[in-house]
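Subject: sequence -> structure tokens, single chain

Hey, anyone have a minute? Need the predicted structure for the following. Not urgent.
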Amino acid sequence: MKIAILATNPHLYSHQRLKAEAEAAGHEVMMINPLYCYMNVSASSPKVHYRGGAPLPHFDAVIPRIGASMTYYGTAVLRHFETMGIYAVNESIAISRSRDKFRALQILARKGIPMPMTSFAQSPDDTEDLVHMVGGAPLVIKLLEGTQGKGVILADSHQSAVSIINAFKEMRANILVQEFIEESRGTDIRCFVVGDKVVGAIKRQAKEGEFRANVHQGGKAVKIKVTPQERAIAVSATKTMGLKIAGVDLIRSNHGPLILEVNSSPGLEGVEKATGVNIAGKVIEFIEKNAKPINLSHRFHG
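Reply:
Had a minute. Here:
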């Protein structure tokens, strides 16, 4: 098969591992920077052109590794590949859903998937009730555009919560206000889901003095065996978002596991190194089972 990896930085661990495993399985791989792509819209012959002017060759599958800062254009490029009939490991609409954190939580809540109490509002006049809705301080404030633990703040007191929320609102920043699950003790669990299976799971422990367990924020990752309930919730959350590959973050609370986030472009390094599982290989195997060869002569007919 010919496989495209859609990524702005080809040198990242995750992208190199996916490329290496695909090539080891005998596939042709091309790294494509979506920012270098430009497209024509045509019912008969849609094409993606690349920097330099040449149209990209036909691919059997595309692995989107679209960063949060370029979601809009990256998903537009991915949609064009989908229009051309190319199999996308994660489809553009599912990636867009997962990147809007409040929309994602609304979708998960509609399916009854448990999560921390979360609130969202626009007007500073509503701040007091916003804090009250999640059970008061301490609470967590999250920027909707934040990734890798950035833009996540723990407000210890009611006054600090009100001040921080109002400051963000004055900046017209979109934020979520979420209950703080104290019993999680600065840990969370990342489940790496491929299809309908959790193929690897790690527990991330925040560094001393920090409550964010993200590895990018200094947290440490160790292999963990998740419970059947946690496994089921991770797979259900992935399917609910319409994703096939996802990193599902959850925490353990006194009333069971709670979903924090469903990541459509999860990093491979932390989970591969902590678990010893060949996650990249699992992704390539999934593509081999699910990407169907396209009959180019009939692609745009009937």
